[in-house]
Amino acid sequence: MTTAEPRMLRTLPPFRRDRLVQGWLLVKALSDAGDAVFLIAFAWTAVQIASPAVAGLVVAAGTLPRAIVLLFGGAFADRSEPRRLMIVFNALRVGVLVAVAVWCLTSAPTVALLLAAGIAFGVCDAFFEPAAGTMPRQLVAPADLPAYSALSQTLSRLGTMTGAAIGGFLVAAYGLAGSAAANTVTYVIVIAFLALMLRPRFALPRASGEQSVLHGIGDGFGHLARNRATRTLVIALSGLNLAVAPAIAIGLPLQATANGWGAGAVGIFEALVGGGAMIGALIVVKWRPRREAIGGFVALLVQGAAIAALGAPWPSAVGAGCLVIGLTAGFASVLLSSTFAATAAPEYLGRLGSILRLGDDCLMPAGMAAFGALAGILPLWVPFAVYGGAMAVLMILPLRNPRLQEIQLREVSAPAA
Asked: Nearest 5°: CA angle at 236, between 204 and 359?
């Protein structure tokens, strides 16, 4: 801990009156709304100009390059100034959006244009997201990380929902060019806020610039091998969505079809998940357990039972399961992400964040395919029970970890602790 950090902790405003942090989270939410607007227009345009198979390839075009480059992005986030990286790659995003808008104003959109834009965004995401993941640790005290995460997730969900709601109308009225222009405005606002207003309060130690980037990536994996508590957190956080996402994305439509509930029921169920997640995140603002990590993993243990309940043939049981899934997801993700941000070695935050994200990206397709395969050969309740049970069993590992049992963020006195 530097001598300046205790002084900074004493002079920080209470989180509820921290206008700098609140302004940053509002700007982030605005950017999320812009992303949702552009994603709606991007997918709609792909469907209009290409076959369903090609449209699916276009929409997913950024996933593979992001996965390939993500570890490099994490290494750069740990050896460079994260705020500068965020400005640079947001500026590159602006360049991509402007190019898309200009093209669409002069010519019809093409598959090649959409593929190029998707790949460019995937590469920018791979560098921007690890850098952005270090910002909570640089802005607030460890004890305030759960409140930061809760407010960030709530505003982000609201921004995404708002952007998705207006995105369809915007693309209908102004096409892909108008949606790209709207998203450009949000990115320009983010760049201006980062450049002119946002100043990190706590300096993070930087990885050595003398070692190669590849050596830095290997060092990140080596750090995981050496630190059991951090390794357990990364494994658990990487697996958070592997059980619930297939159950929601594939299982709910299958349930509604098999029982004749109709597509409207799927919308209601997913709304219950989304609304529950916002409520669960907000609960942390008012109340949180003394041991945040244990509280988060206990909530996910409950979520495992709720996933299994989705296999019931009654809409009331499925609706209740969806609400519980949302509540536990919002509550646990806030507690566990803030625990990770507070306790991971600060010079490894970017690399650990990229490893965590890469695990989710790489394993999710297999999780989706496995759920569909089980549902195709066994009674529909079986994949829900298997995935819910796997989630509950996975949570036993961190709940038995002595180091995680001891973590209390209120007792962490400084970001470098």
From this structure: 75
CA dist 22 and 266 (Å) reads: 34
**Range in 23-27, 95-99, 222-226 the model is least confident about:** 222-226
Band (pLDDT 50/70/90 cuts) for residue 88 is very high
Whole-structure pTM value: 0.79
| Residue 213 burial (CB count, 10 A) | 15
With CA atoms as reference, report the closest residue to 74 among 142, 136, 137, 133. 133
* 3-class state of residue 2 by DSSP: coil
CA angle, 200 as apex, 230 and 350 as ends, to 5°? Answer: 30
In sequence order, what DSSP letters do the residues of 318-381 get, joined into one string? HHHHHHHHHHHHHHHHHHHHHHHHHHS-GGGHHHHHHHHHHHHHHHHHHHHHHHHHHHHHS-TH
- Cβ-Cβ contacts under 8 Å for 326 (sequence gap 6 or more): 272, 273, 274, 275, 276, 277, 278, 279, 280
- Alpha carbons 301 and 298: distance in angstroms, whole number: 5
What is the per-residue pLDDT across 210-256, written as a single tens digit (0 to 9) for each? 567 888 888 888 888 888 778 877 877 776 778 888 888 888 888 88
pLDDT at 352 over 90: no
Residue 50 per-residue DSSP state: S
Rounded distance between C-alpha atoms, residue 340 and residue 355, angstroms: 13
The count of residues in the chain is 417
CA 133, CA 125: separation in Å to the nearest integer? 12
> How far apart (Å, rounded) are the C-alpha atoms in residues 362 and 358?
6
CA distance 162 to 141: 30
With cut-offs at 50, 70 and 90, classify the pLDDT of residue 201.
confident
What the chain holds in terms of domains, given with CATH numbers, is 4-196 (1.20.1250.20), 213-410 (1.20.1250.20)
> pLDDT category, 302, cuts 50, 70, 90?
very high
What is the percent of the chain with per-residue pLDDT over 90, rounded to a whole number?
27
Percent of the chain with pLDDT over 70: 93
From the list 39, 44, 330, the residue with the least C-alpha distance to 163 is 39
Distance CA 338, CA 139 (A): 13
